[in-house]
Amino acid sequence: MSSYLLTTLTKKKEVDAIIRDTIDKVLILRFGRASDPVCLQLDDVLSKSAREVSKFASVALVDIDSDEIQVYVKYFDITFIPSTVFFFNAHH
To answer: Disulfide-capable partner of 2 in 7, 15, 47, 54 (CB 3.0 to 4.6 Å)?
Structure first.
């Protein structure tokens, strides 16, 4: 599936870094599971779109099952899978 073309984040420090380091672009983080069929459908759309929007947006996948990511799951009150959070200059 085409989600392999997108960066997958599993550690809090990876998410912190991508949020902090993505400047003057929209950052799209998809929180979900690689085994979920709905996530795979969204991943397919995101990966097909990533190249077209690369000048003004970056896309990454966040593994919601990772223990380190649970701080973000709670902070963003993620209850639906998949969930998408958008950032611009480190603000959501």
So the answer is: 47
